[in-house]
Amino acid sequence: LKLQFLYLIDAAHDSFPTMTKYMYDLLVIGGGSGGVRAARWAATQASKPKVGLIEMPYTATVGGLGGTCVLRGCVPKKLMWYGGHYGHDMEDARGYGWKVAAEGHDWSVFMEKKRAELQRLNGVYGGILGRAGVEILEGFGKVTGPHSVSVGDKELTAETILVAVGAAPHVLDIPGVEHAITSDDLLDLPARPERVVVIGAGYIAVEMGCILRGYGTEVDVFYRADLPLRGFDEDLRKFTAAQLETHKVNLHPTTTPSRIVKQDDGKLTFYYKAGAEEKSVADVDQVLFATGRKPKVKGLGLEEAGVAMKPDGTVIVDEYSKTNVDSIYAVGDVTSRMQLTPVALHEGMCFANTLYGGTKQSPEHDLVASAVFTTPPLGTCGITEEQALAKHKNIDVYVSEFRPMVHTLSGSKERAIMKLIVEADTKVVVGIHIGGKDSAEIIQGFAAAMKCGMTKAQLDSTIGVHPSSAEELCTMRQPTRSFRDGKPWAPSNL
């Protein structure tokens, strides 16, 4: 689709005056969450800067307004997660007396609806930018100097350049990697695969594994660690592994991928190392690499422009998102500060406020809530138990694992977990980690309370909503374990 608010570059320059000697006051490279927010917010400030935003035309795998999150990340993933959960819901309904007879799932119908929704959202973002007065410039933007960007055969100049190009899936360099896919491809497959191998154990890996399993696909997840979700709280990691197995996702910890071979019938054989022994899984439809994401800086010209980057392409910025080149800034996943859509939005807003809104504002990356859409989903905010021990030494830990009320009749073995981490000297809640139905919705409210400095006493004095899983966080009175000076301390010593 052609963008509704596409402007011809040649005609645009004289339409609105700039505040400087350059063609634009601000040029944003990248139409994802951070770039769109920064451009729109900057353009609507009282100073009325002239803002242009550069993005590739929208296709299934590249370009488009909304970026990774809207077009090939959070939004299509969540739609697929919703769809897969209807299968679980129909199973659970039988325990409540419903006589449900599913006739199967039509993958093509779902994909057609999903694509139409993404096209709609791409247009919505074009409308948002257009109404704010942002010029949308289609093409690949390359930084050619501290104040210049090329788009095709056009050379544009700007007082300030904002890089918001995001990140792209990273794949391992093993023989046969050309036969594998990434999450970008998975979210737009023309047909549902019968069997998938997932390589990796981060949130994308476990989410995709659960989503596919919900549609009936046989899923095998291979990873080097002993538990999935490295960097998450240990209790949540153990809980997730158990729940994945409950939902018949096959886990293969402490393994490493070695090669992928295409069979004569078009299917794949995946080879992996388990210790010193090489083993294999045959007749696989797709091998999915979910082995992290790296900044999408190839061909962007940042190195030639003198912008400092880490070896993996991460753009190095200061507390106000400025690079070592005074006129070039960067926000979002390309800076690898915290690869979450709401964080990119926040960073974009802070950038616009600082440069054009008259309020110097640096982004805050503490107490950011996040969710993992596994089955069941997870919600987390604050630091893990391990991090709390390293930072505070004196902590009280409260853990409750239980069977949610909804599953007392459904017959499902799915469970829930609620965990609080409290700094013992101040009684401030420094970490909340939960798993179970509606965890993503639950954690948002508690994150707001944590941002306000919620203490354990305040949590205890809050009357819970009954009956609900969330009320468990308001009813945990005795610590499961305590630590003083970083060492275990029995509750009886309190």
Q: What do you see in this structure?
A:
The structure is a single chain. This protein is of the alpha/beta class and 494 residues long. Helices cover 29% and strands 24% of the residues. It has helices at residues 9-12, 33-43, 67-72, 74-94, 107-132, 183-186, 203-214, 234-246, 341-356, 385-392, 407-410, 439-451, 456-460, and strands at residues 24-29, 51-55, 135-138, 141-145, 148-151, 154-163, 167-169, 195-199, 218-222, 250-252, 256-262, 268-274, 277-284, 286-289, 293-295, 328-330, 370-372, 378-382, 395-402, 416-423, 429-435, 481-484, 487-489. Strands 1, 2, 3, 4, 5, 6 and 16 form a 7-stranded mixed sheet that branches. A 7-stranded antiparallel sheet has the order 17-18-21-20-19-22-23, sandwiched between helices. Strand 12 (268-274) and strand 13 (277-284) form a beta hairpin. Helix 2 (33-43) packs parallel to helix 5. The radius of gyration is 25 Å and the shape is globular. The N and C termini lie far apart (65 Å).
Strand content: 15-25%
The largest sheet is:
7 strands, mixed
Kindly provide the radius of gyration, computed on alpha-carbon positions and rounded to a whole number of angstroms: 25 Å
Number of strands: 23
Secondary structure: helix percent: 25-40%
- Report the total helices: 13
Provide the structure class: alpha/beta
Q: What is the arithmetic mean of pLDDT?
A: 94
Catalogue the unreliable spans: 1-16
Shape call:
globular
Distance between the termini: 65 Å
